[in-house]
Structures are given as structure tokens and as C-alpha cells.
Model the fold of this input.
Amino acid sequence: MILGLGTDIIEISRIEKVVSKFGDKFLAKLFTSKEIESIRARKYSAQHIAGRFAAKEAIIKALDPDWNKDFTWKSLEILNGPSGVPEANTVGDFSKKMPENSQIHLSISHSENYATAVAILETR
Done:
């Protein structure tokens, strides 16, 4: 059963400006160490950062507002699975807020100027 759907789009230039101004401080606020490692391994890191940011926003929009009370940017970790497909993992106490037997389906895409993400929260 689908519990929620969320989508987000962001201008990549907006992320480039923030990263150039705040650098590692910005990354450390929004991303886990594993996510930062993945970002740094990418040739076009601004697109990757924007996609991950959009993914976290889309997931939050898919969740019940009551669950968002304990959310921090690092409550969600967006990494690529073995096949390259983006996967969302909940981290820490936020994991306890997720419904039992739930799964987040995630799609991230980008063009030269925009990054977008769609998230579906499903329970089995």
C-alpha cells in the first residue's frame, strides 16, 4: 500500500553557489560521511549534491508530517546500491518513526540545470 508520494526539483546553480560559499560546512550539515565520500567521487559533484538534496526533500514530502518532528538532514542517507540505483536509508532515531515493513522507492534525475527526485513510501 502506498503511504505517501513526494517530489522535488532544484536548480543546480543554487547548489553550486551554496557549496562555493560554505564548502565542507554545508556538506557536513546535510550529508553523512558516506554520502560526502560518494559526492567527492563524482566528476560533476554539484549535480550529485543537488540530486541527493532533492531526494531528501521528496522523501520528507512523502512522509506523514508527524514523523518530520525528529527529522534532521542526516536522518536520511541516500546512496547508490550495487546496481547503481539510488537507495534511501533512515538513520538513528528517525528509523523508529518509519512504519513497520515500509520501504522508500526513489528516483533521481538531472539535466544541465536542474535536479529532480521522486519518492514513494510503501508498506508491504
